[in-house]
């Protein structure tokens, strides 16, 4: 139990506690402003946190994610605009409740459900992390290669119906990963005589460009002056009654169970979990007709489910080294810079760090819940801040965060280049997540593939039951989404034709 004590004591260090508070405040602000996603917030912060001690930096990044998970419900409920993709389900019932004068009840119920979901995710990490890591310790080069392929294809397959664009984005990331020195021989590849590229394309400028500056540029393009939706300002009753809390127990439990299960599937993020949790709660409710029209049950179930995925995605990230979502992809990059290698060995070599991460999440959840319940009224006023002020702040942070990593103008130039690349991807529907995953996991996939080929040849991959199973999962992740879409379209066309046929007969008659 020494590692448990060491992990707890490390978090109780005053400097770590200070950074936890800083991360929470930043995270709540990130979530509260529409268009500033948690991925962008973590990406911007990563440039500054690399100068901190690893645990301090991890505290900032994790708490930004936790804070954003609470904060993104605010614009979803008051403005009908998701603060991050994870709060899409919050708009289904949150905004109708706000229009009914129940915004305060919606915000409070959402905060409580979010806290339950996050604590459920922490329990998943504490319970499932060690067994999952123990299983992964048996993996050799072939199995690790197959695992990385699963991680990339899962995010490609979950690219919101844009399979081929997600695939193109992933391939682009893998191509970027080949720049630098060969992982086996050390020979230079695709550096074009640029010394700064000898160690590969710098990770921080890429993610800040793709997720930070590109998003600001996109918002400037689509922004229409004077047509911004105005937030609901009348919050009404704030504290739910005992009867309401009792009624919310069932949807909260359904949302927590749904999100905890979905969170363990790489790349299936809080947006999908929130919608599924909302739908599962609707099916189990006695008041189905209220869902989508202003149901506290639907709001709480969706928010609990989307929040519960955080623990599962963190579990796969730490135990397997496969990012659970785009935020975890950014976090893996920062961990590698700190000298922390996520994967099965982390639980055996640094169990105190895992304990510290669990403790940070628990503290962050409790503190943010308290802030949400007692200070959310003040944060709500920030929604009235003109967007152009926020854009200036974000651009300055992009420039300063990129330059601060290595004090390199080259990094700033790379960030601007990838901002233009990211703007192109956003405007034409190419998801940036697979590109980042390809850049991060590409060297790991290549090195393990080549080691496996050197040891056993191709037979080493296709004779390993684990590797074959993982590769089969990867294929299914690519094949199932288009097949499912095709079947839905056929079913819709069949339904339309059946509905139109009787009408046609009546007209003919």
What descriptive keywords fit this protein?
509 residues, two-stranded antiparallel sheet
- Oligomeric organization of the protein chains: single chain
The helix count comes to 22
What is the structural class?
mainly alpha
C-alpha-based Rg, rounded: 23 Å
Q: Output mean pLDDT.
A: 79
Number-wise, the strands total 2
Identify the overall geometry. Answer: globular
N/C terminus separation: 82 Å
Helix proportion: over 70%
The profile of the biggest β sheet is: 2 strands, antiparallel
The spatial strand order of the largest sheet comes to 1-2
Task: Note the beta-strand portion.
Answer: under 5%
Poorly predicted runs are none
SSE run: HHHHHHHHHEEHHHHHHHHHHHHH
Fold and architecture overview:
The structure is a single chain. With 509 residues, this protein is mostly helical. Helices cover 75% and strands 1% of the residues. The protein has a two-stranded antiparallel ribbon. A hairpin with a 6-residue loop joins strand 1 and strand 2 (188-189). The protein is globular and about 65 Å long. The N and C termini lie far apart (82 Å).
